[in-house]
Amino acid sequence: MNSFSVTALKVYNEGEHRFILINCRGKDRRKMNWKTFIAGIAVGAAAGYAVNETLHRTVSVSAETVLAKVKKAFKENGPIDGSWIQMTEEDYEKYPFKTRVYKGGVSLTKDGEKKQYEFIADAKTGTVLDVYPI
């Protein structure tokens, strides 16, 4: 059990501030045993691991979201006849960058002529990395 005594020795004002001088006496009689210490370390390590995993989790943009973004950009050049996207991510490397990507394509009519394009988009951000005609 803890036994503390707190005594106010002096109260004084200085301008807008009030100060109270106090005296604390007592002794904390609790002792930390090794079980409490080990439990604290274990809880701290588990919390640190959980925070690290949460911060470094890679969340990908859905393939549908990427395709909608690409179609919106292509609609400015004319009506879209068709579009497709691979629903699975694949590895992509263009020196010195390595990432996971979606690949897809869009066909549209421009100036009365059908044109087809393929694109590569970053799966993590949805950013289009490359577009090229077929």
From TrEMBL:
Residues 61-132 form the PepSY domain. It comes from the Bacteria. This is Peptidase propeptide and YPEB domain protein.
